[in-house]
Write a structure and sequence with these properties.
globular; single chain; 7-stranded mixed sheet; 3-stranded antiparallel sheet; binds pyridoxal-5'-phosphate; alpha/beta; 12 strands
Length: about 375
Amino acid sequence: MKIADRVQQIPPSGIRKFFEIAEEMDDVISLGVGEPDFTAPWAAREAAIDSLKAGKTSYTANRGMRELREEIAKRVASQYDLAYDPDDEILVTAGASEGLDVAFRALVDPGDVVAIAQPSYISYVPGVTFAGGKPLSVPTREEDDFKLTTEILDAHGVADADMLVLCYPNNPTGAIMTEAEMAEVAKFVREHDLTVLADEIYADLTYGDEHTSIATFEGLRERTVVFNGFSKAYAMTGLRLGYAMAPPEVIAAMNRVHQYTMLSAPTTAQYAALEALQSCDNEVIEMRKQYNRRRQFVLSRFEEMGIDCFEAKGAFYVFPKCPWDDTDAFAEALLQEQGVALVPGHVFGESGDGHLRVSYAAGLNELREAMARIEAFLG
Ligand SMILES: Cc1ncc(COP(=O)(O)O)c(C=O)c1O
């Protein structure tokens, strides 16, 4: 059967390759996945079970259950100073992933230039390409702690792009942006009339500075789609639930794509998410505390080993320099010889080359063992 060109031009995920090798091996410690090692809070799981027991197995409204949208609106208003109307400015999606895909399809015309701040989550370039857009790589630099600056935006022709995709706290670097730094990006976006897709899925996972959404700056709300979800902070990856927030005409357009493809996000997961917002704050705080402890441990161990690693302050990743020039060779040898799986940074865009993504969403004992093995590997 003929496979469409736009699909053929996208290579399979570079992360998967390492999982496939790891799956064939015994005693592997994987610090490669972007997934919490915690399980979802019990109350959220129980709400999902109760919903099934009560026979809640139908579709919901396309945009998601009204009660859930109200709860999301309350949460983002109190926590991130974002005011969205649950009636027509919030779309509940099957993970942030679906939200992003729907946004690309609803907002990108063939040939539109979509600037992507990199290193970045691996779905943006394929998402833009599937929608017929042209991805424009905007490389951030380690010397700026992988923050996006107006100098970088200028130097890479983002002024002439149609859209900018950014993700802070960042996957894969763990970088965050302060309010003042984000204000500069917001000014650039306003001046050059760009649309922004802000992937804020790690917003709850910062260690030190609180997250500032780009949509909070003057003139940005009307040109931004904000994405968030339950996968990371609530450890609910498998439940597949996220949400997008934007002005009514944008949500209406996204909902048109969503209603013909997804119909509605998983109903059981929506009940879990509702409960998560209503009663699971303490669990989120506890998980964040534990991530922070692990982050500090991993950073200090890399320092002891003499591996250069910038101080990541968000998400659950650190992004050390690779001690070898060839990051693929390093990652493969480390996996084969010591059974530790990491991801080469170039998987997240050329600007990630020379680095390794290390996820610390693993227990402290596992992290201790993984670090000891890396130390042994380095000799
Ligand atoms: C930056 C970023 N955005 C989106 C996603 C996907 O999230 P979801 O599980 O809500 O689809 C991930 C998952 O790793 C991610 O790292």
